[in-house]
């Protein structure tokens, strides 16, 4: 029988500023005279382990301050991105989408377009070393609360993304603080993305209820970042299943943020059994202290999934991926070969 960890894996929801090597963070901080929260890697790891159990999404977001300080130059963005590509391939991931918010990387003078170009160059360099993985980049718009606070910056993200489609950038997203204003307030941004033919996913239904999943579907989203709270509204759940919506579930992140009480009570398995296109992802590999393999262990040991379910969810992931058809067909073929050996 095949080890489930050797499965060709698909990762749809991975944030660059939450998925990094802490050794690199300290190396960059030393080079750029940046003060971090910990004195060294060991104390920083311990601090992040404590902070990760934040008990709310908006508290959890405070952990991103340190890495963002170190991701403000072209050189550093290239390095962090290339290393993440290498780390993903080393974990048996064959296709991944890395997301980041260009507007969060402009403190030292980069424009959003220049930040995108740096991440795309990091992608190129990573792929040059890693022939067994394909990577797409997602540019995140941000919610800081009132949508007017950074409306122009979010619109700039939409327009910049449209210029880099087909060059490694594959879609946009809306991430950040949830529940301060209704998600529907951001609708014009997604309308502009649709006008420019920019694909998108959208964070919704995590710290907030199923109504935000409905808002995202009304934008035209057919992928939802997290989205597990859709389970608690049967009507919205049925609509999401009817629309073939794919949920980007990140189990450990959900537990750490207390948007679900435990792995055992997480509704992901029930959603899959109802017909929802559920996928399993890491969200923030370093900050959450996870890999896809450790998430799969939680799935098998605490959440009620079977090995066959994990293969099925990887199929859903590549089918929903913002990738060319030849990449999709290649990964599906690999999954077929793997499942035949289970």
Largest sheet entry: 4 strands, parallel
Instruction: Please provide the ordered H/E string of secondary-structure elements.
Output: EHHHHHEHEHEHEHEHEHHEHHHH
Domains, number: 1
Helix content: 40-55%
Describe the 3D structure.
The structure is a single chain. Strand 2, helix 6 and strand 3 form a beta-alpha-beta unit. It is built from 16 helices and eight strands. It has a single domain (4-339), classed as Metal-dependent hydrolases (TIM Barrel), CATH 3.20.20. The chain is globular and about 50 Å long. The longest helix has 18 residues, at 112-129. By secondary structure, the chain is of the alpha/beta class. The protein has helices spanning 22-31, 41-52, 57-60, 65-69, 74-90, 112-129, 151-164, 187-195, 210-219, 234-242, 251-256, 268-274, 285-288, 292-301, 307-320, 325-339; strands at residues 9-15, 93-100, 134-143, 169-176, 202-204, 223-226, 246-249, 277-280.
């Amino acid at each position: 029988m095949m080890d489930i960890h050797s499965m060709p894996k698909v990762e749809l929801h991975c944030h660059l500023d939450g998925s990094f090597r802490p050794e690199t963070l300290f190396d960059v901080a030393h080079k750029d005279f940046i003060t971090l929260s910990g004195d060294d890697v060991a104390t920083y790891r311990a601090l992040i382990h404590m902070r990760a159990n934040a008990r709310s999404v908006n508290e959890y977001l405070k952990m991103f301050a340190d890495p963002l300080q170190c991701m403000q130059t072209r050189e550093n963005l290239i390095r962090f991105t290339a290393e993440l590509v290498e780390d993903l391939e080393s974990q048996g991931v064959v296709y991944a989408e890395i997301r980041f918010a260009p507007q969060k990387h402009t403190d030292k003078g980069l424009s959003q377009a220049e930040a995108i170009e740096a991440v795309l160059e990091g992608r190129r360099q990573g792929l040059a070393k890693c022939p067994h993985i394909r990577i797409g980049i997602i540019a995140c718009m941000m919610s800081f609360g009132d949508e007017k606070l950074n409306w122009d910056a979010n619109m700039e993200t939409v327009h910049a993304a449209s210029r880099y489609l087909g060059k490694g950038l594959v879609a946009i997203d809306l991430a950040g603080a949830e529940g301060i204003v209704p998600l529907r307030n951001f609708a014009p941004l997604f309308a502009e993305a649709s006008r420019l033919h920019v694909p998108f996913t959208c964070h919704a239904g995590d710290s907030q209820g199923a109504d935000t999943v409905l808002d995202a579907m009304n934008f035209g989203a057919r992928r939802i970042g997290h989205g597990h709270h859709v389970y608690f509204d049967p009507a919205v759940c049925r609509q999401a299943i009817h629309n073939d919506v794919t949920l980007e579930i990140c189990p450990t992140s959900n537990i750490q943020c207390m948007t679900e009480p435990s792995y055992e009570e997480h509704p992901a398995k029930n959603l899959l059994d109802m017909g929802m296109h559920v996928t399993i992802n890491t969200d923030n590999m370093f900050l959450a202290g996870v890999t896809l393999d450790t998430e799969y262990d939680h799935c098998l040991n605490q959440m009620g999934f079977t090995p066959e379910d994990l293969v099925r969810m990887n199929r859903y992931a590549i089918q929903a991926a913002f990738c060319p058809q030849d990449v999709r067909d290649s990964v599906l073929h690999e999954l077929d070969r793997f499942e035949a050996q289970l």
